[in-house]
Amino acid sequence: MFSSKKGNGKSTYSATTLIAKGTTIRGDLTFSGAIYLEGRIEGTLRADGTDACLTLSDQGSVVGEIHAPRVVLNGEVKGDVHAAERLELAEAARIEGNIYYKVLEMAAGAQINGKMVHQNEAPKRLPAPDAEAAAAGAEPA
Predict the structure, then answer these.
(1) Where are the alpha helices (DSSP H) in the chain?
(2) Residue 66 three-state SS
(3) What local confidence, expressed as pLDDT, does residue 124 receive?
(4) Residue 22 has what pLDDT?
(5) How much is the pLDDT for 127?
(6) What is residue 60's DSSP assignment?
(7) pLDDT category, 5, cuts 50, 70, 90?
(8) By CB neighbour count within 10 A (0-12 exposed, 13-18 middle, 19+ buried), where does 42 fall?
(9) pTM to 2 decimals?
């Protein structure tokens, strides 16, 4: 469940940042690569990049939103979790908030107090209408 290796045995992350037990960060945090959280963050966690991963240990906690492609939770979260690719909930995961995910893996014992929202695809943005084409279409022929 907590593996970050592909079939070839190589890690998918170049470096891992550790926020140790006893550390509290107050404020928003943007990260790239992998982050392993044993401490506490009070603020929004936002991944920068499509290969980023957040792992929350059973002793870690987050008070705020989480936005990352891959999220592995085994601690306490008070806020919404947005996992663009994969969300893994271990047996000690406690979430008070909504979860948004594409793929969900949930172990027996994990708890969610909120909505579970499956996201098929990321919302697509339509291109802005061409001003000239819109003007031409609005005129009578």
Answers:
(1) 131-138
(2) strand
(3) 61
(4) 96
(5) 75
(6) -
(7) very low
(8) middle
(9) 0.76
Long-range contacts, stretch 70-75, CB < 8 angstroms, 24+ apart: 72/1, 72/2, 73/110, 75/37
pLDDT digits (tens, 9 = 90+) for 37-87: 999 999 999 999 899 999 999 999 999 999 999 999 999 999 999 999 999
Which pLDDT tens digit goes with each residue over 96-113?
Answer: 999 999 999 999 999 999
Q: Which of 135, 141, 83 is nearest to 112 (CA)?
A: 83
* 30: its two tokens: 């943007």
Q: DSSP state, 94?
A: E
Using CA atoms, how far apart are residues 7 and 92, in angstroms rounded to an integer?
A: 27
Question: What's the token pair of residue 44?
Answer: 């929004």
| Extended strands (E) in 2-131 | 16-19, 24-26, 29-31, 34-37, 40-42, 45-47, 53-56, 61-63, 66-73, 76-78, 81-89, 94-96, 99-106, 111-113, 116-118
Q: In this structure, is the dihedral angle defined by the CA atoms of residues 127, 132, 137 and 139, taken in order, positive or negative?
A: positive
Phi-psi region of 132 (alpha: psi -120 to 50; beta: other; left: phi over 0): alpha
